[in-house]
Specification:
Elements lengths: L1 H23 L3 E6 L2 E4 L24 E6 L2 E3 L2 E3 L8 E9 L4 E9 L13 E5 L8 H4 L2 H10 L7 E6 L16 H16 L9 E6 L1 H12 L6 E5 L14 H7 L5 E7 L5 H13 L5 E5 L5 H15 L21
Parallel strand pairs: 1-3, 8-9, 8-10, 10-11, 11-12, 12-13
Antiparallel strand pairs: 1-2, 4-5, 6-7, 7-9
Length: 337
């Protein structure tokens, strides 16, 4: 009896360690859940550096295991409830002809992404401020808050894509066109994401947003490509420093053709970007365009945008499916991951 208890304790400890590893993204493999089998994967201002959020950043796993999770029965119907509290972040890179540099990116997948191989997920594209990189948004807590809200059912599941480029080059020294950040996003990044991931490939399922210089790129890219993006957010967009060619000027683009987009703008009450952001709001309103405009507390620094993240996520996800089961069918998805 004594040896049986010791053996049972060892087995229980192994299972706890195994489950913790899965939660941290350290263990993966083939998971059979409710008859679904999927394969897993083992500028201009000074800012104090911020430590990265605790995220599960994963490459191909070298560990393989099999985990079986039984469905929950509700009203006599088998219903799968996602047991995981965190998603996972995957890093990638590609050589961009549009940017003439190597573009890095982080893709954050929601909890239980692998359990829905026939579903298409909304995608939120987020652009960093200058002179930051693809980890700017994760450092502000966007992925951690998304995981928390998704796991608690506050919002539905979605993918976040965060590209990163050099602090000089065409991110700063161009204003639009095929050989610019806009061209990279439209001609290279979006097709790459929709090749590799199960993305909802309609404007209603794609949102784009950015901070400061990234906010300007989000605005001009969305205005010029409404066949791609249906939702736009600009957080302290650096419109006051923008010197675009006329064909890429957000103010002229809006006056030329009022956009058919859901739009959110915000800035801080002590933010040098506030004046031109409010002016841009006024131009939109004069064209009959609805816009959500908020003023948060703070200046043009990370603390401002970190505090605004809950409002940002609330806006971006407002029209997206609220649950996993409500996701559209992945009839045209190419992504295997």
């Amino acid at each position: 009896m004594k040896y049986g208890r010791v053996w049972g304790g060892l087995m229980l400890g192994f299972l706890v360690i195994l489950w913790s590893g899965i939660q941290r993204g350290e263990v993966s493999g083939s998971l059979d859940v409710s008859h679904k089998t999927v394969s897993g994967f083992s500028s201009f201002w000074a800012v104090v550096p911020i430590e990265s959020e605790s995220l599960a950043v994963i490459s191909q796993s070298e560990i393989t295991t099999t985990v079986e999770i039984s469905p929950t029965v509700q009203d006599g119907v088998d219903t799968f409830i996602c047991p995981f509290l965190r998603g996972r972040s995957v890093e990638g890179a590609f050589d961009s002809a549009a940017m003439a540099e190597r573009v890095r990116y982080v893709v954050h997948l929601p909890p239980c992404y692998e359990f829905y191989p026939e579903s298409a997920f909304p995608v939120l594209y987020l652009f960093h401020g200058w002179p930051f990189d693809e980890w700017h948004w994760p450092n502000l807590g966007i992925a951690a808050l998304a995981d928390d809200w998704i796991s608690r059912g506050i919002v539905g599941p979605f993918i976040i894509v965060m590209p990163g480029v050099g602090s000089e080059g065409r991110y700063v020294h161009s204003s639009g066109g095929p050989y610019s950040f806009e061209g990279m996003v439209i001609d290279e990044l979006v097709p790459l994401i929709e090749r590799d991931y199960r993305a909802w490939q309609e404007p209603a399922g794609r949102a784009v947003g950015g901070i400061s210089r990234g906010g300007v790129w989000a605005v001009s890219t969305a205005l010029l490509h409404q066949e791609v993006f249906g939702i736009l957010g600009a957080h302290s967009p650096a419109l006051a420093l923008n010197r675009p060619l006329p064909q890429y000027d957000p103010f002229l683009l809006v006056q030329r053709e009022p956009p058919n987009l859901r739009i959110y703008l915000d800035a801080g009450d002590a933010d040098w970007a506030r004046s031109q952001t409010s002016r841009f709001r006024d131009v939109l309103l004069a064209q009959g365009v609805e816009v959500v405009y908020q003023v948060h507390t703070g200046g043009h620094v990370d603390a401002l945008w970190r505090g605004g993240v809950p409002d940002y996520l609330d806006f971006y996800t407002a029209t997206w499916p609220p649950t996993y089961d409500a996701l559209p069918s992945c009839t045209v998805c190419l992504g295997e991951m």
